[in-house]
User: What shape does this take?
Amino acid sequence: MTRFTRRGLLRTGAAAGVLAATGLPLRAQATRGGRLRMGLNGANTSDSWDSRTHSDIFMISAAQGAVFDSLTVVAADGSLEGELAESWETSSDAKTWTFNLRQGVTFHNGKPFGADDVIESLQMHVGEGVKSAAKPIVEAIAEMKKVTDHQVQFILADGNADFPYLLADYHLLIYPAGQIDEAISKGIGTGLYQVESFDPGVRFVGTRVDSHYKDGTAGWFDSVEIIAVNDITARMNALLTGQVDVINDIDFKTESLLAANPMTDIFEVTGNQQFTFPMLTDVAPFDDNNVRMALKHAVNRQEMVDKILLGHGRVGNDSPIGPANQYYFADMEQHAYDPDKAKFYLKEAGAEGLSVDLSVSNAAFTGATDAAQLLQASAKAVGITINLVQEPADGYWSNVWLKKPWCACYWSGRATEDLMFSSAYATGVPWNDTHFENERFMELLVKGRVEFDSDKRRDIYHEMQQIVHDEGGAMIPMFANFVGAKSSKVTNSGTIGNVYKVDNGRVAERWWMA
Amino acid sequence: MHPVLKIVIQRLFLGLLTLLVVSIVIFIAVNSLPGDFAQAILGQSATPEAVAAIRKDLGLDQPAITRYFTWLGDMVTGNLGISFAQANFASFVGTSAESGSGPVTVLQQIAPRFQNTMFLAGVTAVIAVPLSLLLGILAALFRNSVFDKVANVGALSAVSSPEFFLAYVLILFLAVLNPVLPSLSNIYSDMGFGERLLRTLLPALTLTLMVTAQMMRMTRAAIINLLASPYIEMARLKGLSPMRVIVKHALPNALAPIINVIALNLAYLITGVVVVEVVFVYPGIGQLFVDSVKIRDIPVVQACCLIFAGAYILLNLMADVLSIISNPRLRHPK
Assistant: This one.
């Protein structure tokens, strides 16, 4: 089947509903039945059905992946489809967006779904004292209008061609209007599975609803059980002994056990998850771009991929846009370990014999301390002394990240170029962890948002990647794959989403019993 | 008043006093943890205003002394408080509708986990205590024999290995190579007793290996110590069988130290099995405790600490009372 271009779908999403309704030919082999058992990490006793607090794979799989729906969804192949929205259209300035909602959908408590639910669910994310990672997305909507019971109109403060993409964010779930508190405490959504039992930090069980608008295209299991297995060895054991069918984040050191077992196989996709070392570009010595360039050439990226990721990833090129993005600049000149170049830049900066502190903790990402040691060793050969400051894992994100001039960090990546740059590279945004400021960059950022022409957008985003690559404060040595393992008892279409872990958290929806 | 009763009351009073001191220590320790709940829960998005709003809402902006006495008062009246972990969602929903379930109390958080922990401790005790007594008695009976040496070396190697290592060895042999027991012990409330027991067996066996050595060796040592006494010699001279000499004559007098060691090990089973819980994914109180420390859910952390302290004090008290009862001289003072 022909792959719809993302931009074509974006402008008029009319085809999206049809696409979702017909389904992919491969899915024809899928059969209903069975119980999916997943062992996932990232669970905590503070988990709840409040999507504003969701940040890890356990709750994302249970909420967006099973119990709740959003307006749009990023399909496994990266294209955008309608979920609760059937189609959408926009004005030429990308400011006014009209969404036609699916009819005949009901919540698990029987309440019919309509425009009010959309508006009230989105409003959860803004307002006095509300904390939600999706706040910037909803705040950009100047006005939400209910046109009919099944049509809503959003008027954005500034045009944004990627807007439908943003609505697929896992925080933006649709709750029943007027019953949001109840829905949060019990887990009432429009998803394929309704909550049978939920014990925060321990276990979730969902049963398939009798009839659903995705019947015949998704939701093959009779029931889904997600078990919180935060310990990596316990997860591997659970899969090897057949107590769960799918696990996330395997232990690379013992992956051969999984590979050798005929009953299990490893699945892995390259996405946008990146391990970074951000430098504050307004703090000496990192305020001199020559110093930043020297450090970017003093890191042995391939060695990090080999030793920290054990091959499960690829080298980064100091740009946060990765292969899961549409306008990834694959042909950009690759920064490599080059002592001569590094020394040249040091000399330009007049900073020979440079000595800098690097704050690090394994809270930043698994193996961050080891990665920093590799960096320390490779920089030493160039003549740069890196003093490693071991920070406590506790409170790392509040006391070290964004505060220390140079530290370790990770980003899961974002579905669109604009969202990634707007979150972490735009002037003055709270998560700009390099304090990066660039006039041309900001100009392009605003221009890209309202540009519908694919070729022009490509030019814009390539130039932005080039700017960050040449002048940015983030050293991005590696992109880590999303790796998981499954039992041969379950199977999938062969296309696994690369936006987030374990098929974007949608195993319960997309997979089936072999 | 009966002297035993008097001692019990005296010990109870001392226990309460200890608990009070422990409560102060807990409060100081918990409050000197770096960062707080507001920062921990907000993570990367902790802006000063958001942090201040959450602090105010949870009463964290009050001075420490005020918070301590409020907490102590609540504890005395049996009110363990509201858990922060879920409280923040109820408070920051931003919609006006009434919440469906109300805030989650510390008791609601702790009760099911504590039951699970007690279940695991119970299963372990049922296996470990008779096993170690039996091994100890047999080791005393056949002391310096091959059996004695094998039992000693075996028990000592088990107790010297880290818990997770024992756990993985057991998983390897009993779950992976010979799939007789499940390696995941994720028990839940609507599970039947048989299933629950089956799933608890592997962690219980791991813990049995951890606690057997001390109890067995104490049993053996206490009995052997008595075997040199004149009254044992008398019993032997009467022609009693060695087994009867040990069980009927030596063991009753050796009970006091054995009971003390058993009590200490039971207290360990209730308070210190986090590693085993993590490895087997057993939803016990240890995991809840660690989770709560991570997110700075202070009411749960403090309540857990108090429960742990209370368990130690209570089990020691029971051990003391039982030792007194097992000793006729203390039971019937002249």
